[in-house]
UniProtKB/TrEMBL annotation:
Active site residues per record: 370 (nucleophile)
Name of protein: Glycoside hydrolase family 1 protein
Family that this chain belongs to: Belongs to the glycosyl hydrolase 1 family.
PANTHER family for this protein: 6-PHOSPHO-BETA-GLUCOSIDASE ASCB-RELATED, GLYCOSYL HYDROLASE
Gene3D superfamilies from the UniProt entry: Glycosidases
GO-annotated molecular function: beta-glucosidase activity
Length: 474
């Protein structure tokens, strides 16, 4: 028996089990019922390729997996797995098609009413992301996204509309998906139209500031409009280990982690931390920060949520830096870890480390709102029933959940766990469907062919069993 299993405790009663999605990756219906285009509608080839000017037919997100028309059946499948929570995002451009209007689009609002009806029917807690990589295209093109302070007001109007409409029905809210990822993916995460290479550091950090103010402002609005709502920030968590025990490498790893810690520190403590101010000073970045901004930032969150897929290493010596092909966000490859088919390091213990780290740092309830394995699944037949024999996915799930259980035994206060992409959907980084995360297979291929039929994979039943036993069968 390894020491890590000695302290295993059960998952707490009421622990929320479920899955997480994002509107642009599954809804489709990109221009239906008054929806305006979002930046995703002009990103047909993922985050490494420049956007197109207009939506093009080769963009799989335009149809997605047609959740917009099939949400009832899909949510019923989630219920069959035993989900007690369903994380989804609201497409900003369904509610405000251009982003800067004053009146919302009723047909867009009505769609999410229907989604919430289904959640309620199945006793599932909704967990809503207000902005998940879906800035309305007009805000990106006409304002250059979050580099422009005007977006704060547009977002406030949007958030207020959501709190007023759904505030009685939705308890858990996330302001921005992976807010720290704007550092690496300025268009996807910050709606910034200026190409990454031309963007100045000042523009980038001003965009970050504007998003942080908007996030805190949403919390403030929720306190007035929907006081029972719990507001969380959402951070892309990527623990960074020193590549060697050399103290310079240890410090290099710490500096890399500051990049994500800063976002949590500001959301939880309500002010910029000293190390962040130092970085801005040393890099000659002068931001427009008003006294009113400082005041708004003091509206802090109720919980901290995060995504966790992988860890990376860091070193002070560029010559020792081997960047793994899957490390889209940088960092050196960890020679001790296996990787997924897309080169993402698989590190279950890293999840325990993050949970302990975040809990010790912020002492607020945590929520794992993304974790999962993208794989090139093959549809097969077992006893005449189409399925995917995805033992690798169950292994990944179990190994990560064992570490979650350990973290809970370590004393971490954890609200729940939502697996990323419980149903196959379009990948954010590649914009393809062949990178599949689901427990449910969707018959749609990268060339757009397929019937869109849904099939339960083997992992569907494994997750069902884990949820039914509240994690006791791990
Ligand atoms: C996160 C995003 C999700 C999701 C996930 C998996 O960063 O919040 O939108 O897509 O990563 O990434 P990918 O789809 O690129 O495999």
């Amino acid at each position: 028996m390894t020491p890590t299993t000695l302290t295993a405790q059960p998952f707490p009663e009421g622990f929320l089990w479920g899955g997480a999605t994002a509107a642009n990756q599954l809804e489709g219906a990109w221009n239906v019922d008054g929806k305006g285009p979002s930046i995703q509608d002009v990103m047909p080839h993922g985050i490494m390729t420049p956007p197109t000017d207009e939506p093009t037919p080769d963009n799989l997100k335009l149809e997605g997996i047609d959740f917009y028309h099939r949400y009832r059946d899909d949510i019923a499948l989630f219920a069959e797995m035993g989900f007690t929570v369903f994380r989804f995002s609201i497409a900003w451009s369904r509610i405000f098609p251009q982003g800067d209007e004053t009146e919302p689009n009723e047909a867009g609002l009505a769609f999410y009413d229907r989604v919430l009806d289904e959640c309620e029917k199945h006793g599932m807690e909704p967990l809503v992301t207000i902005s998940h990589y879906e800035t309305p295209l007009h805000l990106a093109k006409a304002y250059d996204g979050w580099t422009n302070r005007e977006l704060i007001g547009c977002y406030e109007r949007y958030a207020r509309t959501l709190f007023e409409r759904y505030g009685q029905r939705v308890k858990y809210w996330l302001t921005f998906n992976e807010i720290n990822s704007v550092l690496h993916a300025p268009l996807m995460s910050g709606g910034i139209w200026t190409p990454k290479k031309q963007l100045t550091k000042t523009q980038l950090y001003q965009a970050i500031h504007n998003e942080l103010v908007a996030s805190a402002s949403a919390t403030k609005i929720a306190r007035e409009v929907a006081p029972q709502a719990k507001i969380g920030c959402m951070i892309l968590a990527m623990p960074t280990y020193p590549l060697t025990p050399d103290p310079d490498d240890v410090w290099a790893a710490r500096l890399a982690e500051h990049d994500s810690y800063a976002f949590g520190d500001i959301h939880v403590r309500g002010a910029y931390p000293g190390y962040y101010l130092r970085k801005l000073r040393e890099e000659g970045i002068e931001l427009e920060i008003t006294d009113a901004d400082r005041e708004v930032l003091t509206n802090t969150v109720d919980f901290v949520s995060f995504s966790y897929y992988m860890s990376v290493c860091e070193t002070a010596d560029p010559a020792k830096r081997i960047v793994g092909e899957g490390n889209l966000l940088g960092g050196a490859k960890n020679p001790t870890l296996p990787v997924s088919e897309w080169g993402w390091a698989i590190d279950p213990v890293g999840l325990r480390i993050v949970l302990n780290d975040f809990w010790e740092r912020w002492q607020l309830p945590l929520f794992i709102v993304e974790n999962g394995l993208g794989a090139a699944d093959v549809l097969t037949e077992i006893d005449g029933v189409p399925t995917v024999d995805d033992g690798y996915r169950t292994a990944y799930l179990r190994e990560h959940l064992v570490q979650v259980r350990e973290a809970i035994a370590d004393g971490v206060d954890l609200l729940g766990y939502t697996w990323w992409g419980p149903i196959d959907l379009v990948s954010a980084s590649t914009a393809q469907l062949s990178k599949r995360y689901g427990f449910i297979y969707v018959d749609r291929n990268d060339d757009g062919s397929g019937t869109l039929e849904r099939y339960r994979k083997k992992s569907f039943y494994d997750y069902q069993e884990i949820i039914a036993s509240n994690g006791a069968c791990l």
